[in-house]
Amino acid sequence: MKKIFLASITGAIALFSNATTIGSKSVQAGQTAQSQKKYDPKEQTDKMAKSLDLSEEQKTKVLAILTDVSQKKEALRTKMGDTAKNSADWKTLDQDKETRLKTVLTDEQYKKHMQMKDDMKMKDNMNNSK
């Protein structure tokens, strides 16, 4: 009787730990797929155009800025690998992008853009803390 009871418990533990492992792997796979999503300057420009009510001239300039920075970041990622996002060069590219965007956007649009960025950071931080 004890052997049957121990075998049942052992089987339940093995089954539970396997299910937990499978579940965490699918979460990790989802996170990997999400982080692997390629940045698209055109898509980002379209989102900004909609949320900030950009003129056609602004859209053209924003797309040029985002494309340029994206290409430089991709070159940096190729050179440095996964550590690129934590580098001073990456931060410099982000600062350059913001400086250039500030010259294209009106003060009101830029304030809204920065608020949206802050909101996204807060959302990302909340998602990463879960």
Major beta-sheet overview: none
Q: Indicate how many domains the architecture comprises.
A: 2
> What value does the average pLDDT take?
81
Please identify the structural class as seen in this structure. Answer: mainly alpha
**How many helical stretches?**
5
Strand tally is 0
Roughly what percent helix?
over 70%
Cα distance spanning the termini: 43 Å
Order of helices and strands: HHHHH
Q: What fraction strand?
A: under 5%
Radius of gyration: 23 Å
**What characteristic shape results from the CA principal axes?**
elongated
Stretches where pLDDT is under 50 for at least 5 consecutive residues are 19-27
Helix/strand layout:
Elements (H helix, E strand, L loop, with lengths): L1 H34 L5 H12 L3 H25 L7 H17 L2 H23 L1
Helix pairs in contact: 2-3, 3-4
Structure report:
The chain has two domains: 37 residues; 92 residues. It is built from five helices and no strands. Helices cover 85% and strands 0% of the residues. The chain starts with a helix and ends with a helix. It is mainly α. The chain is elongated and about 80 Å long.
Question: Which terms summarize this structure?
Answer:
single chain; 130 residues; mainly alpha; 5 helices; 0% strand
Short structural summary:
With 130 residues, this protein is mainly α. The protein contains five helices and no strands.
